[in-house]
Amino acid sequence: MANIRKIEGKTGTSYKVTVTSGRDITGKQIRHYLTWTPEPKMTQRQTEKALNAAAVDFERKILEGFAVDNRQTFAEYAEYVMALKERAGTKHRTLEYYKACLVRINQAIGHKKLVDIRPGHLNSLYENLGERGMRKNSGKATLIADMAPIIEAKGYTKEKLAKEANISATTVSAITQGKRIKLQKAESICAVLDEDITRLFTVEVNDEPLSAKVVSDHHKVIRIILRQAEKEMIVQYNAAIRATPPKVPRTEADTFQPEEVMVIRDALELEPLKWKVITHLLLVTGCRRGEIAGLTWDKIDWHNNTVKINQALLYTSTRGLYVETTKTGAPAS
After folding, report:
1. Which of 64, 175, 250, 282 is deepest in the core (most CB within 10 A)?
2. Radius of gyration of the chain, Cα coordinates, nearest whole angstrom
3. Residue 32's beta-bridge partner residues?
4. What's the rounded Cα separation, in Å, for the pair 289 and 2?
């Protein structure tokens, strides 16, 4: 039987519903709590009726095994699920992408209680993600000043600047060669050098809406998190399954035609052997760049003329360069 206690607070009246369900290993009773607040302008009779119904429903959920927690927010639970996925062996790069999506997701629904999330909340989020201005740090920056004397005057080397700005040394080299870099990296460099970004770079900001594919990826992350909550019987259903993400249009693969491959092959004759080998492997195997870059001598069978592809050389800003198994985990020859 649920126990109900009335609470008078500064913001009004609420009720604390307590349900017990057995004892833990120490013999202490396991208690579950629900805070229920009546709707404004409810009569006493309406309040009693709705409160009793909420208490009965709460007790039923506990008896059925639901670990109802009406205080935990989506952002809190999402952090727990990400840690769970990492322990389960989800690839580092995949987790990094999930966390990048969660930045936008948490801005919209991170504060909401997990048990309160409904399909309508998610549909509103997907609609907002499809509007202009949702691309954070998506601009590009191109150097317009001579960086070398500025770096020297500030007492830095390229290597030291890269380290303190938390970027790679190749990015610093790319800047000095006049190549465009991400706006976020340019901002990091200017922060270290204590320079106004407009003095060193021209900035191009991309305010195009997120693609349907990217919005769909955000939906996928929410679905994964709520699926875990449903699995752990924290929520009764996965609201993401009942939501309506944008339809991702199918696109045809952009592949090289035979005559284009012939032009590439002929052009390779003027290049160093390293680039010849890499490009020929890309053309013949269809592997990803990281898979070719991660190839080691022990993966080559000279007797049977086969190459085993089961690892890739990857990079993330948090880990740097690292080697990981291929996306599918299945070796290709």
Report:
1. 175
2. 28
3. 19
4. 61
